[in-house]
Design goal:
alpha+beta; globular; single chain; Immunoglobulin-like; 8-stranded antiparallel β-sheet; 2 domains; 2 helices
Amino acid sequence: MKKVSIFIIALTLVFAVACKSDKKETKTNTDIEVEETEAQSETTTVTSDVKYASVTLESKSNSTVTGSVTFIQEGNTVAMAAKISGLSEGTHAIHLHEKADCSSDDGKSSGGHWNPTAQPHGKWGAPEGFHLGDIGNFEADAEGNGTITFSTDKWCIGCGDETKDILGKAIIVHQGTDDYKSQPSGAAGARVSCGGVIE
């Protein structure tokens, strides 16, 4: 009789422990959903479609003008930021030219303004037309330093669209001011600095 009682007590304890273990492992639907959400947030990777291009500007036409230009594309917008030194104080023009070829001393190896849509030269956004390379003018201070920022959805970096892709083009800084009307280049004077647009 004692053996039977001990056996029943032992069986009861085993059953109680097993039930307790089951309770520990039991999860509600809410718990499962929370865990799945946490697992998803841990494994989700955010990919951003950001592209970069950079330019080092070299002196041309016996000038001492140098600088750097960066292009960043986020979504459909390309932003440009240029920092230039060695200029004479005053207003200077900056344009995109047809070829990323700065081999000649005068920078003319880069060709004319980049104009894939065959428009007349003009101020950016002018209703009568403008080149896609017609960035515009910027100011240099008394120390010869100048900066310019610009952004547009009319450019892309490496998209392969010949009417938008700035890769393989050149940035040209001019000695003078773009008058926005003289054809085909705005009478901006000598090309004092040149750099090819590369990724």
